[in-house]
Design a protein that fits this description.
heterotrimer, A mainly alpha (about 210), B alpha/beta (about 240), C mainly alpha (about 230), A: mainly alpha, about 0% strand, B: about 240 residues, alpha/beta, Rossmann fold, six-stranded mixed beta sheet, four-stranded antiparallel beta sheet, about 35% helix
Chain lengths: ~210, ~240, ~230
């Protein structure tokens, strides 16, 4: 019941987000309408971070309690995290093409995000290749913990690495300073994404539980 | 020594053990018989804390084996199909490794003493890669002797041994028992099993179908009992 | 020596002895290092200057590739004769096993790196003498970080059919920060710069090492399933 309500709320939120992003928020002066993709891009990465935080929680939870529902949480969150990170990168790329003229550039944020994607795709591949549920949960938990611990290390190393080669302007679909209507539109979209994430998570975990007992 | 209640285990959806309840008192030797796939190895592995049951409770040497496997392990000596030997190391070196890992005294004299008791002292400095299956098994028994095991778990120990080897192993188990140890042995060999058993337990399709004192059984009666039970249960493919 | 240190040492002793007797891994790895040298030359040569400029990266590429080959096999020997089960049954803190394996892996990698470095020095006419100390100061923490994660993942993938695929797939993304730091610091070392100029990289290296080793020590028992 609550899951379905969550789904409706998410749908509502997304609708509101669309309106806010395309109707309410003003057209950005420098970049034009393509800047609106930020309303997808920024909430997506924030939601991805939420997902990966849940992977960490699920991983630690499983190792501490050996109860599979923690593992289900970690697995579902990882899948969604990869999905949202993919959305982040693709939306960033779509934004980048008209703005920078290229589909991809090795700037710090893009690179860090891409490495994040690689780590958790690896996590999912590992899960796919281990049949026994307990072993799968244990191994995934260890990889999940290491992956999460590595996030700040990756962030700094990539940032410093780029500073070496390109001490340039901020590259990212974020205008600065951020005007209030834009910030508001961002907020609405972010809430909507979080609701959507929660809905998908609940559904995915329910499916996983059914699969186990089938 | 061992108190198992309602042990069940399934892999994916395949049941391997179903509601096994077994008690083994200190100083007893219980022999597990059963066809392939009956669950003997799984049961032994669970008692050894190498595997976890899907359901049930298990007490070994008075300790809850499911909650405190680490506490149980020093008291259990396992000789399974793989004998826990490193092929490139010599017999002495293998013993040294496992004895140090078990936090026990690994002095050369003590290691050689164990090798003598299993009649391997002549090949102490030979690499295990040159050993026969029987010799590897004897080395595994030496490893167990150097620990503090009170419970011996043997999985198909008589396989691949000749007549002399079987006799030797039977005497070893009986000596272990005489020194106060307990043994749970899974085997296919009726004769060798009866020679060492106080009790015989027959396992079939993951269930205990018979639990008899060895005094009541001769080789023939055991054979007939076994055939009757393992055929009567019907073939499940 | 404490019981923990004794167990760590005996695991290291066993692995070194096994390796010396079977000569499986180290010889092939050293030969692989030589082959890499040729590979780099054929793929990137013959412009000597371009190769020299890329040297720090090539060195670490060589180390990581060798590591992928050599470190993934860390627990292969435990698969025979159910020794893995034997290890699970040992008393005490299982992280001693991890530590022993880690030290052995570090020793193996450092040996390969020394050879690769020497080969690079010979083939590309590098004056390694004066920069040897700072180089080693970078190599050791870099290698430790690589081995720390690799040992953990090697234990994880030892029993899987897809070990050869999964091990690199898991290891490489985790090594990104280490690679970035090590290459930058190595470059500074090779150019004769004092390491204090790349202190932020060195701090990252050492900080990452601490994180990886601690995680390895804490989670190894779960990988072993003790």
């Amino acid at each position: 019941m609550t899951t379905r309500m969550l789904g409706w709320l998410a749908l509502l939120g997304l609708g509101g987000g669309l309106v806010a992003g395309f109707g309410y928020a003003p057209r950005e002066v420098a970049q034009g309408n393509v800047q609106r993709i930020m309303y997808l891009h920024v909430p997506a990465i924030l939601t991805a971070y939420l997902a990966f935080a849940l992977v960490l929680i699920g991983s630690v939870g499983y190792l501490a309690t050996r109860q599979l529902r923690w593992d289900r949480l970690a697995a579902a969150a990882a899948e969604l995290g990869v999905l949202f990170t993919g959305v982040t990168i693709i939306s960033g790329s779509i934004w980048g093409r008209p703005t920078w003229g290229v589909w991809w550039t090795w700037d710090a944020r893009l690179t860090s995000t891409a490495v994040l994607l690689l780590v958790y795709v690896g996590y999912l591949l590992l899960r796919g290749m281990v049949d026994e549920p307990d072993a799968r949960a244990r191994y995934a938990a260890v990889v999940g913990i290491l992956g999460a611990a590595n996030i700040p290390i990756v962030h700094f190393s990539v940032k410093w690495w780029r500073a070496l080669h390109q001490p340039s302007t901020i590259l990212g679909p974020e205008p600065s300073p951020i005007a209030t209507p834009i910030a508001l539109a961002l907020l609405v979209n972010w809430v909507a994404f979080t609701l959507l994430f929660a809905y998908f998570l609940a559904r995915r975990m329910a499916i996983a539980r059914l699969e186990e007992h089938a | 020594m061992i108190a198992a209640h309602g042990l069940s285990k399934w892999f994916a959806r395949t049941p391997v053990l179903a509601d096994v309840t077994l008690e083994v008192g200190a100083g007893q030797c219980v022999v597990l018989l059963g066809p392939n796939g009956a669950g003997k190895t799984t049961l032994l592995r669970i008692v050894a804390t190498l595997a976890r049951p899907s359901r049930g409770s298990l007490t070994v040497c008075g300790l809850d084996a499911l909650k405190e496997p680490q506490a149980v392990r020093p008291m259990v000596g396992v000789v399974a199909h793989g004998s826990y030997v490193y092929e490139e190391l010599t017999a002495l070196e293998n013993l040294r490794f496992w004895t140090v890992m078990a936090d026990a005294d690994a002095s050369r004299a003590r290691l050689l003493g164990a090798l003598q008791r299993v009649e391997l002292e002549m090949v102490a400095t030979e690499r295990v890669r040159t050993f026969s299956a029987g010799m590897k098994r004897r080395l595994a028994l030496a490893r167990v002797l150097l620990g503090r095991a009170k419970l011996l778990l043997l999985d198909e120990p008589f396989t691949g041994l000749d007549q002399r080897g079987r006799k030797w192993l039977s005497e070893f188990v009986l000596a272990f028992k005489a020194a106060g140890g307990t043994a749970l042995v899974a085997t296919h060999s009726f004769a060798s099993g009866l020679a060492i058993a106080d009790r015989v337990v027959i396992l079939h399709d993951g269930r205990i179908v018979a639990d008899r004192s060895a005094d009541e059984l001769s080789s023939d009666t055991l054979r007939r009992l076994y055939d009757g039970l393992t055929e009567a249960e019907g073939s499940t493919g | 020596m404490t019981a923990y240190a004794r167990r760590t040492w005996i695991v290291l002793w066993k692995d070194l002895l096994t390796e010396r007797r079977s000569k499986e891994s180290l010889n092939a790895l050293l030969f692989f290092a030589l082959l890499l040298l040729f590979l780099f030359e054929f793929a990137l040569g013959p412009d000597r200057e371009r190769l020299r400029a890329a040297l720090p990266g090539l060195l670490w590429l060589g180390f990581v590739l060798s590591g992928l080959l050599g470190l993934g096999r860390s627990f292969i020997v435990e698969r025979d004769n159910d020794c893995w089960d034997g290890l699970r049954l040992t008393p005490g803190d299982k992280s001693a096993i991890y530590l022993g394996k880690l030290l052995g892996n570090c020793a193996m990698m450092l040996a390969v790196e020394a050879v690769l470095l020497g080969l690079f020095g010979v083939f590309y006419d590098l004056a390694l003498g004066p920069v040897l100390a700072p180089l080693v100061a970078v190599l050791v923490p870099g290698t430790l970080g690589l081995a720390a994660v690799a040992t953990l993942f090697a234990a994880m993938t030892a029993h899987l059919r897809a070990r050869e695929l999964l091990f690199p797939v898991l290891l490489l993304p985790a090594q990104v920060p280490l690679l970035l730091a090590a290459v930058s610091a190595t470059q500074a070392a090779l150019l004769g710069q004092p390491l204090s100029e790349v202190s932020h990289w060195m701090k990252l290296l050492i900080g990452a090492d601490v994180v990886y080793v601690v995680i390895g020590l804490l989670t190894f028992e779960f990988v072993l399933d003790a």
